[in-house]
Amino acid sequence: MFDYLVKRVxxxxxxxxxVTTVVFILLRGIGDPVKLLVSPEGTFEDYENLQRMLGxxxxxxxxxxxxxxxxxxxxxxxxxxxxxxxxxxxKEHIPATLQLSFAAIVIAIPFGIFSGIxxxxxxxxxxxxxxxxxxxxxxxxxxxxxxIILILIFSVWLKMLPASGYGKFKQIILPAITLSMxxxxxxxxxxxxxxxxxxxxxYMTTARAKGVKEKGVIVFHGLRNAxxxxxxxxxxxxxxxxxxxxxxESIFAWPGIGRLMVTAITNYDYPLVQACALVMAxxxxxxxxxxxxxxxxxxxxxxxx
Amino acid sequence: MKKLLEIKNLEVCFYLDSAIPAxxxxxxxxxxxxxxxxxxxxxxxxxxxxxSIMQLVATPPGRYLNGEILYRGKNLxxxxxxxxxxxxxxxxxxxxxEPMTALxxxxxxxxxxxxxxxxxxxxxxxxxFKESIEMLxxxxxxDPVRCANSFPYQLSGGMRQRVMIAMAxxxxxxxxxxxxxxxxxxxxxxxxxxxxxxxxxxxxxxTVMFITHDLGVVAEIADRVVVMYAxxxxxxxxxxxxxxxxxxPYTRALLKCIPRVDEKRDKLDDIKxxxxxxxxxxxxxxxxxRCEEAIKICKTIVPEEVTLGDRRVSCHLVTQKAKECRL
Lengths: 305, 327
Description:
The structure holds 2 protein chains of 2 kinds.
Chain A: H1 2-27, H2 33-37, H3 44-54, H4 60-72, H5 86-121, H6 126-140, H7 143-157, H8 169-199, H9 202-209, H10 214-251, H11 257-266, H12 270-298, H13 300-303
Helix pairs in contact in A: 1-12, 5-6, 5-8, 5-10, 5-12, 6-8, 7-8, 7-10, 8-10, 9-10, 10-11, 10-12, 11-12
Chain B: E1 3-15, E2 19-31, E3 35-39, H1 46-53, E4 62-71, E5 74-75, H2 81-87, E6 92-95, H3 99-102, H4 109-120, H5 125-138, H6 144-148, H7 157-169, E7 175-179, H8 187-204, E8 207-212, H9 215-221, E9 224-229, E10 232-238, H10 239-244, H11 249-256, E11 305-308, E12 311-314, H12 316-326
Parallel strand pairs in B: 3-8, 3-9, 6-7, 7-8
Antiparallel strand pairs in B: 1-2, 1-4, 4-5, 9-10, 10-12, 11-12
Helix pairs in contact in B: 4-5, 4-7, 5-7, 7-8
Keywords (chain B): ATP-binding, Cell inner membrane, Cell membrane, Membrane, Nucleotide-binding, Translocase, Transport
Protein name (chain B): ABC transporter ATP-binding protein
Organism (chain B): Paratissierella segnis
């Protein structure tokens, strides 16, 4: 187990290193932040001064080395645009993102598993068709469209829920639903197919032959086996929520790390984008790590090998 | 002897691409305390018959078209699923062919055995687990405590089948249905499992219905035998009579297939042809295309069942002989 952990940590570090490097290189291609920051009346000298101040006058490899050594020291630099330490900015914005992701998970997982079981147990009935259709739709609808439609219906027409903002419970509902939709749909699909497979298994007949009631057969004997596949896939999808939050936060003006990153990109704010990307990558790898550990708890065959 | 179970004219059909009459008018009785073997090739409907008793046939695609299954005079097919759960595991238990897949891979063995006790006898978790260790002792598991704490994948096939038996007998059922419990095991383990079942029977006096295609097993444990072919019962007799004087050509052919120690053979006998496709059974006697003794009438007319003392048989040859004798 210890060897395994060490191996996983090393793998994670490698992933993070690659992410850092790729983001660093790609960013230099999007545009020149100095041109954006220097005032329109500024001289060429102003430009060069600013460039020097931001450390962008050094050759690329030098900048990269500075960046890496900064990370090791825990210093991610200052934001060009806000002129504040990047880490502080991220600390301010990450709770909002975590809240939103958490809310989306709380919606998606229970509902997804529940509707997946229902549609597997009631296979080939109208209920199954409805659930299947809805989940395919949920999987296919892009979140920027869904978000706008929800705003239109619930904020503009029905005036039930606010279209944007942060802090009140009502304000999290629409963005959380929008963000959860993809995860909800894929959890449903996965649970359904996995449950269908499990329903065919001999041990389900054994359980029935013992006198276990149908609900007990499904929940106690079926669900746990069905969840083996669902857990891995779903947990990987949770990582995707982070990507989704970039879009959803922008639509609903949700002050999370996703929106922070989008504004940072439009501002050519190199240090901020780099740090945001790194944070997301860290969360993503960490989640994968947790999934593997979790998996061993559900499947005893893995725990002991 | 008292009848414990009466199956009357049972018809079970599966509706897949076409209608498949897996069990077609099967009738036989099971007497209290006996061991009844149901014999036949794969696909003859013996498993479906046994699953029907417990109402465990998946519906759909299956459907009970006709017939009655009387347990102590009450028709089980008329029971609701809730009523059936009170019968399953308590009155009638079942063990299955594949001990590898019949146990739930994610629960400890002890928990799985104890489950029936918790449902039917109101045991709490701890009591049930303790009792499951006792059950494992009864079925001859060498280290019952460790076994109860194991997961199925940690046990051998023979051990798993013992676990299945422990599970099935935990609530002292009146009847045990064993659906080819030895088929997936190697011969020495088969013998051990048969011994376990035989011992339990002498101890508790429970009735056993044993599904198998292995006539060696039949000779070893059966009191009476029902021979099935293509969804129908072709012969029923007590085990001695059946082996000494098989009446149906199919039974004779089956017995001929068993190699004997005192005979030298170059080639094993087999029954020519293949098991008919249930979607299109042959007309007349369903065995006639493979029967070496078939006569004209076999091709067109379904043979009626003849009762001769305590045995039954459905074959035109026997019917004719019986008529000749009477004349």
